[in-house]
Input
Amino acid sequence: MVVGTLVVDLRLGDVRSLKEKRSVVRPIVADLRRRFSVAAAETGHADLHRRTEIGVATVASTHQHVVEVLERCERLVAARPDVEVLVARRWVFDDDDLE
Output
């Protein structure tokens, strides 16, 4: 078993309220879940209007597959015109790492 996580710190475009922020973040999270069958959620900066952190997790049988899924997730988020990726961090844990 291989577990992978991705944390993406984002700056949002022209967002002036938490309601507008939700209208940007929710579609990103839903798209990640639908396209890649991953667990995804807003995991940080919940009280800031123009910042957010999105966390993604996935499990697979091979290291390579986990890395590919996380790379695709990162590219999907980075391709959105209404956000700027500030930092993206990935972690992959193999069976040997989990003992």
